[in-house]
Design brief:
heterodimer, A: Rossmann fold, Rossmann fold, 9 strands, B: alpha/beta, 4 helices, PRTase-like (chain B), PRTase_dom (chain B), Pyrimidine operon attenuation protein / uracil phosphoribosyltransferase (chain B), glycosyltransferase activity (chain B)
């Protein structure tokens, strides 16, 4: 029987193609489960999971919680804003205190790159990275690839462009690793100030022109303009950004093919994507959300089955 | 120990026809009855039964579904290996229907226990019956018995019963063999 090669999901970089295949096969089954009249299975009855979010999140946190509850795990959720972290407790102490209450798995989001990795080396629990700084967001990349696979049949051989703030984006980095591992070709597109200098060393081409990028691709992943991370002006204003890099219905309709439009959310309507595109037939944004629950169920189920 | 043949293709054929006949005796026109094959191995038997109902009795409209019980098993994390799932395909509600579970071998009864829980995700059936090709007598861990049984077999715990189907393994046959040690 197949199992994951890792005991933690810290990033796409640390897993392999077989792991991704196994996660997707398992997610197929969970997708069927969450479309049943009663959407719950009892597999993880004796597993307790702590969701620790040191950074704000709505959809990722909800998606993880729902995935855990659909698997019948016991769940405790914790936001740093209301915690002793404010009183000066260290990360390891916070997590060890939670683990002392007999928690088997920790899902963590943190603003520092490597936080999940650090935790996995220092505490005794299975760790799932729900986003660490500008490093990785593995479950988002998995659900993005899963959505492409669902829409286009396969990820191998497909062309995907990631548009927007690549510099601050953990979604972009995890997506690049995941897509390349599955044999897709990746380009990035965005203001030069928001493209990392050495991005080409990852085998990713830069296409500064949105129209050309869209003409080339099968799927476009439109990243959010993360105003909270833009500590100084990377582009003159959002109006100029949306004129150059915003996806509009006019551009989409002028292409000679139908491309798949993705967005990890939350959407800034009218900035990186217009409302009519976000709500169009070509958009799989809400499918991504549904698939997110199935993929996270698969990740948690497969990791939990390795907890001895 | 070499595998011992418990049932040949001809014997299986006779038994399947008898089981189908017993089902018809109880369910008549199957207007309120559903067949559910328990994945992975009950699928083949369920398809055979359905096909006999059609060819022998002209009953063609029996809904047939396949239920995977992996996520409902009671040995999650007690087993060394990750439990791998199969496809569940139930395109109908089971609310107030008569459900017949179909599986190839009834052994400890734990799979059927899991199936009884799993089916509740699709509604509340009026009643549930169990049809099996092989009933391993004296091996039950739970108070579960079949309503329709092909052949009763006494086997030791160190022995495995293997059912082959021509769709999958070239020929129909049932073997008794020593369990492979991992």
């Amino acid at each position: 029987m197949k199992e994951l090669s890792v005991n933690h999901l810290l990033g796409i970089k640390y897993i392999n193609k077989n792991d991704i295949d196994l996660i997707f096969e398992t997610a197929d089954h969970f997708k069927e489960v969450i479309n049943r009249p009663i959407k719950k299975v009892p597999s993880l009855r004796d597993i307790t999971i702590a969701n620790i979010f040191f950074e704000n999140s709505t959809r990722t946190k909800l998606s993880f919680e729902l995935a855990q509850k659909r698997l019948s795990a016991d769940v405790i959720s914790f936001s740093a804003a209301q915690s002793s972290v404010k009183k000066g407790e260290t990360l390891i102490d916070t997590v060890n205190n939670i683990l002392a209450m007999k928690v088997d798995m920790v899902v963590m989001r943190h603003s520092d790159a490597g936080a999940a990795h650090f935790l996995s080396k220092n505490v005794k629990a299975s760790i799932v990275n729900a986003g660490d700084g500008a490093h990785e967001h593995p479950t988002q990349a998995l659900l993005d690839s899963y959505s492409i696979r669902e829409k286009l049949g396969d990820v191998a051989g497909k062309k995907v462009v990631i548009v927007g703030d690549i510099l601050h984006s953990r979604v972009a980095l995890s997506n690049i690793f995941a897509l390349q591992m599955q044999g897709a070709e990746v380009k990035v597109c965005g203001p030069k100030t928001l493209i990392p200098k050495y991005i080409e060393s990852l085998g990713v081409k830069v296409e500064p022109n949105l129209r050309k990028a869209l003409e080339w691709c099968d799927a476009a992943n439109m990243l959010r303009v993360q105003n909270e991370r833009l500590d100084f002006s990377y582009f003159p204003n959002t109006r100029e950004y949306s004129q150059q890099f915003g996806l509009t219905k006019e551009i989409l309709d002028s292409l000679d093919k139908e491309i798949v439009v993705m967005h990890p959310g939350p959407i800034n309507r009218g900035v990186e994507i217009t409302s009519d595109v976000a709500d169009s037939q070509q958009s799989v944004i809400l499918d991504q959300v549904e698939n997110g629950v199935a993929v996270r169920m698969a990740v948690i189920y497969l990791l939990a089955s390795k907890i001895k | 120990m070499n595998p011992k043949v418990l049932l040949t293709s001809k014997e299986i054929d006779i038994i399947l026809h008898r089981l189908a006949c017993q089902l018809v005796e109880k369910h008549l026109d199957f207007s309120n009855t559903l067949l559910i094959g328990i994945q992975p191995r009950g699928k083949f038997l369920a398809e055979r039964i359905k096909s006999i109902l059609k060819t022998e009795y002209g009953i063609s409209e029996v809904p047939l579904g396949f239920l995977d019980i992996t996520f409902f098993r009671d040995d999650f994390r007690r087993n060394q290996k990750t439990l791998e799932a199969n496809k569940t395909q139930i395109d109908f509600l089971v609310e107030d229907k008569k459900v017949v579970f179909i599986d190839d071998v009834l052994y400890t009864g734990r799979s059927i226990r899991a199936a009884l829980t799993a089916i509740q995700s699709f509604g509340r059936p009026a009643e549930i019956e169990l049809l099996v090709l092989i009933d391993r007598r004296f091996s039950r861990h739970l108070p579960i018995q079949p309503d329709y049984r092909g052949r009763q077999v006494d086997a030791f715990d160190e022995e495995t019963i293997r059912v082959h189907w021509s769709e999958h393994e070239q020929e129909d046959a049932v073997f008794l063999e020593e369990t492979e040690k991992n």
